[in-house]
Amino acid sequence: MADTKMLKFTDRTQAYPAKRAADERTSDFLEIARPYIIAKAEEQAARCSQCGVPFCQVHCPLHNNIPDWLKLTAEGRLEEAYELSAATSTMPEICGRICPQDRLCEGNCVIEKDFGSVTIGSVEKFITDTAWENGWVKPVRIVADRSSQSVGIIGAGPAGLSTAEYLRVKGYEVHVYDRYDRAGGLLTYGIPGFKLEKFVVMRRVERLREAGIVFHQDFEVGRDASLAELRNRHDALLVATGVYKPRSVDVPGADTAGVVEALDFLTASNRAGFGDTVPNAAGFDAAGKHVVVIGGGDTAMDCVRTAIRQGAASVKCLYRRDRANMPGSIREVTHAEEEGVEFVWLAAPASISGGEVRATRMRLGQAGPDGRRAPEIDPSAEFTARADLVIKALGFDAEDLPGLFGAPDLGVTRWGTLRIDHKTMMTSLPGVFAAGDIVRGASLVVWAVRDGRDVATHMHQYLRANAAATARAA
Length: 474
What we know:
Layout: H1 22-25, H2 38-45, H3 55-58, H4 66-74, H5 78-86, H6 92-98, H7 112-115, H8 120-134, E1 146-154, H9 158-169, E2 172-177, H10 186-189, H11 198-210, E3 214-216, H12 227-233, E4 236-239, E5 245-246, E6 259-261, H13 262-274, E7 290-294, H14 298-309, E8 314-319, H15 330-338, E9 342-345, E10 347-353, E11 356-367, E12 373-386, E13 389-392, E14 396-397, H16 401-404, E15 432-434, H17 437-440, H18 445-473
Parallel strand pairs: 1-2, 1-4, 2-3, 4-15, 6-13, 7-8, 7-13, 8-9
Antiparallel strand pairs: 5-14, 10-11, 11-12
Helix pairs in contact: 2-4, 2-8, 4-5, 5-8, 6-8, 9-18, 13-14, 14-15
Protein name: Oxidoreductase
GO molecular function: 4 iron, 4 sulfur cluster binding; metal ion binding; oxidoreductase activity
InterPro entries: DPD_II, FAD/NAD-bd_sf, FAD/NAD-binding_dom, GltD-like, Helical_ferredxn
């Protein structure tokens, strides 16, 4: 007999948590969605069809047990729902906030086409926030004492933090080294508060700190210690630095005053939110300025929406393809349009000077190997846009880690990402592993969490083998 709590998609319409009005939310950096109430979360979870092949779970990089925790939520068993959600993810409430669910779980929900998908991300956020509020999020449970072996993790972003948690659970001594003064990486400094309020990240970090994980902040490998010195200090290392080298805009004037990098702009904004003193704060403040953002990914969306909140006089986003071919989340584009951002599709900068961007119109040509139609310059159409502040948001590449780390034997690909043995996730250096964007290139937070989970398993196997070999030798 079918479960009467579920399969309610035919008589219950899809309902995301209500968004605050655009004129209200653009006056602050708080998250834009109001939280579900329990009854609404249960109602929306009950829309799940409990299908035999759960495509939502298949298309989730973490393979979260989505149908199961939706069923538990519909039944009002929220603590159990949280425990099941946390069984596969170290930060479900973060993924619930910032994952592009429209391209992953929700975009592959079997009822999506005819009835609208189950609001998976919003329910995931709700059950974990509820768990924090009710004390269901327990301290990290260490299952064994392996403190005779230590692990060093370079990078305190989602991949590094996930690995740190899994290895601390195994009982290893874990040290995390990061260049910033706060842990979290892009979660802390790259993603604006209106998508991810910072207390959500900080409470995760504090939980790890309370578990005995040692954080070394303001620590740069190559400046404060070489990679070789860290290898001598630890039994295994993980490189999870992410990719931070901004892609350039190859046009005249791209490096002049009034032109800034996206990450510098977002970092300055997030630091201001923490109450920090920001060097050259005026140069990263959009207040009263006409702003042009170049790019079409999620970082560009973060920049345009941040500029609106800073009080920009106008905000334009130039993207060389059309709306259907942009890489950023369509939901984010919709939020930005509601907040007053003007999108100029099929447009690319030609030069930047004198407080304006001269741009050319583009047209889409033949599809390339990736299936996307390549943009081509339309020589018959040019225009100018006023620009007191230009923000370059064309994505990120890997830094020269072998050079920065003083490790010329650290193997890289032709893209500069670290080369690993995909069976073990080990780099060319024995005992040095790598995970996250520094292996994949710029990707999603959920993939970084997945990589952190996977590499922790491989590092555990490596450390156990070394411990066994040492014991035999003794």
